[in-house]
Amino acid sequence: MDKRLSSLQKILNGDIFSTQRVAQHYKLLALIGVFVFAGILMGFISEWQYVRIGALKKELHDARNEELTISSELVSSTRQSAVSRQLKENGSKLREANTPVIVIK
């Protein structure tokens, strides 16, 4: 029990870093620290990318819905009946042809 208490006391006081064994491996400990820091950083970067992907998916969904809306409005506004109605409303003198189209060969 006394040995555990002295080991815990060395860790809390920071005396563990002054021992010969730790002093021999300070480069390894620094490398482990760099890897831990890089791992945490990569976790934050991947989480940020996940959030960004979600936002881009929502933006893509909204753009597709807008494209469908515009496409249906365009189809309905270019029908022959809609065009003739718009011509009448604007007071144009153009009228629908009563004779069939002649195909030239």
Question: What can you see in these coordinates?
Answer:
This protein has one domain (2-90). The mean pLDDT is 85. By secondary structure, it is mainly alpha-helical. The chain has helices at residues 2-13, 20-24, 26-77, 80-90. The longest helix is centred in the middle third of the chain and has 52 residues, at 26-77.
SSE topology sketch:
Elements: H1 2-13, H2 20-24, H3 26-77, H4 80-90
Brief summary:
This protein has 105 residues and is an all-alpha fold.
Question: What is the percent of helical residues?
Answer: over 70%
Oligomerization state: single chain
Elements, N to C (H/E): HHHH
Tell me the span between the first and last alpha carbons: 108 Å
Main pleated sheet: none
The beta-strand count equals 0
Strand content: under 5%
- Please indicate the count of domains: 1
Number of helices: 4
Shape estimate: rod-shaped
Features:
rod-shaped; 0% strand; 4 helices; 105 residues; mainly alpha
